[in-house]
Amino acid sequence: MCVACLLSAFLAAKLAGYNVGQAAGLLSGACTISAVLGVASDSINQLGIPDDQKQAFIKAMPVAYAVSYLFGTAGSAWFLASVGPKLLRVNLAKECADYEAKMGGQLEGGELSAYRS
């Protein structure tokens, strides 16, 4: 999963012509890994480039992060609910109903379920 996140963000940044800061923001937001912003900021500050260019890269990160974070959260939720069951060839409604029937009511050992319809 880590490799897939990194490679997909890298390829998308290359195809879009993003700079280092935008690419770091894209990776951070799309994969919902906020820590990438801190690591990328430190890495950019250690580059042997002019300070104004460093600041431009660092200022680009939050913009790319904010835009891509939407897909990283809402998009992945939609993907997992809509496309995921089709990829796995699972009838999600039927599986949920079976699981509910199995787990509802009386549990092993005389315990009762907290579930109420």
Order of helix and strand elements from N to C terminus? HHHHH
Largest sheet: number of strands, sense, barrel closure: none
| Share of helix, binned | over 70%
Give the count of structural domains: 1
Distance between the termini: 37 Å
Overall pLDDT, averaged? 88
Overall structural class, as computed from helix and strand content, comes to mainly alpha
Kindly state the number of beta strands: 0
Proportion of residues in β-strands: under 5%
Q: Which blocks of ≥5 consecutive residues have pLDDT under 50?
A: none
The rough form would be described as elongated
Question: How many DSSP H or I helices?
Answer: 5
Give Rg in angstroms. 22 Å
